[in-house]
Amino acid sequence: MTEHEEVMGVFIGLESSSYEYIANIIAPYKADFPIEIGCFLLIQDSPNKLVARVIDFVPQGELTSFMGQKWLSDVALDAEAIGSDIKKRKISYSVKIKILGTLDEYNKFKPGLRRIPHITSRVVKASSETIKKIVNQALEEQQKGQEIGTYFLDDSIKINFKLSELDSKRTFVFARAGYGKSNFMKIVSSHWHKDFGSLVVFDPEGEYAFTVRKSQKPIPGVMDKRPAILITNRKDVPHTNNVYQKLKLNLKDLPPQLILPLVIPSTKHENTIFFPKLMGIDLAQWHKLVDLLYEKGWNAPLSEINSALNITESEESDMKPIRNNLVPPIKNLHDPESKLLGIIEKGIKEGQVIITDISLLDSKSALWLSSIIVRYIFNKNQDNYIVGGKEDLMKATFVVEEAQSVFSESTNLSAFIDLAKEGRKYLLGGIFVTQQPSSIPFEILSQADNFFVFHLLSKGDLDSLYRANAHYSNDVATQLLNEPVKGKCYMWTSSQPFVIPVQINNFETETSPNKSLEVQQSNPILKNILHTVDDDLTSPLFKSILEKVKQVEAKGLTELGKKCTELFRMLTEDEKKYLRPKNALQKGPIGDEFSITFKYYPVLLLKVTLLKE
Question: pTM for the complete prediction?
Fold first, then answer.
């Protein structure tokens, strides 16, 4: 026993318990009773010491008997009647503990229990120095990692975590809204290194990237701290450095066999005529169909759909469900000028942090978009793995907020289920964030590699967590339920022997708000990526067109129509010829070209904006 380890009581043996070592000690009354739920105690078992965690304690002794309680009731109003000497003689505490492991004579921690100490073995409260040794050894594999917080019961003990442990792993972050899950993910994102692969965040609240104001208080974002790419459809971004403002895909870049199962409800995959027919079309048919429905939408004639698909033994009446099921996703997701997939793929290969802001999309479109991106990367890695092994795989970790929606049995978003079950094989990881552990299928939750659990309310959620990971035992679950402390996280990783309570650092204290312009200007990663994924930017003709867009903007015209006609007037015949295949030129009633289309001018303006940063 060191000079800082205080004797608390004596060991009185193990009690029957399934899957864990539960024991009891007797602790005498002390005026400054220092035992806390969750604190570490040491049981002397020379030359070793058992390490235990307090899970419960209750008073016992004569004063807790029937006659003792009657006497206490009689003297309750007399403060002097219950003296210290009476308490010392009449009160003790029965302390229930969970044995975690052993400290040997060299203070080396070993998990589990091999030998039971004698009854009456002395029990001491671990000193801060000893606790630090225990925690550091329990997190031995994390010591070279990033500091994410402090040990909850002693803030002098720093807690590190190797972010590489999230690479190609299944990780779950559970918390009620407002208790620290977004703060934790900002810390992870801001310290992410390209050696871990890329981090692709799907942000449903629009709070990850830039400084936002909550209750009149500026809350910094990841881009205030580090270079990153933001993909968004917001128009009110503070600047456009490393921001791609086109949250749509070119669906013609993808095979129909990838898109269709994700955007058409699973209930229509069987026992329908149209779905099997669609799954059998080739790329040329798919391109014609997408172009037609993009251009004409609900007004697309059934005869033209039938002609575009050119499917044998089909009638026009078969085309109506095709139009009904494909117009919404094409309308909400398709843009023939989008380079989003190319940006994400190139960004992943470079190990960039990519934030996809889906907060302004409706829930169905957000799920469609995110599932298509995940499926595209998953399929590409799967194909490359079959051909050449792991050497050519893209390494990425996807952050999925509101994970309960992507694992719901009512959805057909198998991309996320495949990511959770098989992603590790293809160097793909997932960080699944939700308020509802019970919404995650047991076979996925029980195979997770890392858990970060904050305050929860539902007994069903706590039970699901315990069934999937028994380290979250009753004592931990009780604290998760009854301690609504913001930022308090019970962390468990596959390399540590027990759950550790961590007070996660506050991202706001380590990051200054409104610094994103300065940070992103110093590293124009998106501009560099665009030059590799957008063939237009290498064309002298297209560069000349963009210069003329700048001239039009400099004239101060306010109406889009006037900008379009003015730009058309300035174009050479070669430049018009270059734009014609893009359907960028507006025709009049008799077929004569007279303007740039309203759809295409913003495309040109976006590229001008991106390239000037």
Answer: 0.91
